[in-house]
Amino acid sequence: MTLIADLRVAASAVVCGASQGIGLALCSQLLARDDVVQLFAVSRQATHSNELEALSREHGRRLTRIDCDARDERALEQLARQIGATCKHLHLVISTVGVLHDTPARAEKNLAQLDLAGLQASFATNCFAPILLLKHLLPLLKHQPATIAVLSARIGSISDNRLGGWYSYRASKAALNQLLRTASIELKRLNPASTVLALHPGTTATRLSKPFQANVPQGKLFDAAFSAQCILELIAQHGPEHSGTFWAWDHQPVPW
Known about the structure:
The chain is of the alpha/beta class. It has one domain (11-248): NAD(P)-binding Rossmann-like Domain (Rossmann fold, 3-Layer(aba) Sandwich). It is 36% helix and 17% strand. The chain contains six helices and nine strands; from the N terminus they run βαβαβαβαβαβββαβ. The chain has helices spanning 21-31, 50-59, 73-84, 116-137, 167-190, 224-237; strands at 11-16, 36-43, 63-67, 92-95, 146-151, 194-200, 203-204, 221-222, 245-248. It has a seven-stranded parallel beta sheet with strand order 3-2-1-4-5-6-9, sandwiched between helices. Strands 7-8 form a two-stranded parallel ribbon. β2 (36-43), α2 and β3 (63-67) form a beta-alpha-beta unit. α1 packs parallel to α2, α3 (73-84) packs parallel to α4 (116-137) and α4 runs parallel beside α5 (167-190). The chain starts with 10 loop residues before the first strand and ends in an 8-residue tail after the last strand.
């Protein structure tokens, strides 16, 4: 399976949110591929992650770990400079950053539980961080095939919202989808070989979903390695003609 359609060279890739869960599994699977020459693993604790340290010992200079809080635009500016110093073009950028219930963000059940701090925290991580990451990496995405894949969530679908609740998480993912759709139009003008994808990985056994895993139907709670595999399959099968679209782990389109 090719990593990216029509890519004729070994890929340079970024995974943001790399130190745990799906992001860590993606790093492991990307480094296991012969067609990935360079991987930048980005997270707030990338240089302090034992798991990323183990991958670094195994893969040497192919892996660069960078500490960066993607909610901080100055940190993203520095990240782009650091990557650009050794890499002239990125072929794959994956953002797995997200928050659901890390104070002040929370999964509100009703309007009475909403507050400004929680809304701002949800939007800062789920919506603003991925699009600002794309903004600062844009100069490295203009001249060769490039895919930008961002983890969204089916719960961000407006037309699929039948249960209510989880106000800030739903809204921040819906806003993320609109930003990605808009960015896909701009990138198509700048680089016709670019692809921007919003991806729903399914409910995965990570820290984000832990308080809610008991309610997941049998067989629908995935381990991180399976979700990462599905993400890479979706990336491989969706090229520029699909840019600005929203896909689930099972290869089915998700309604906006």
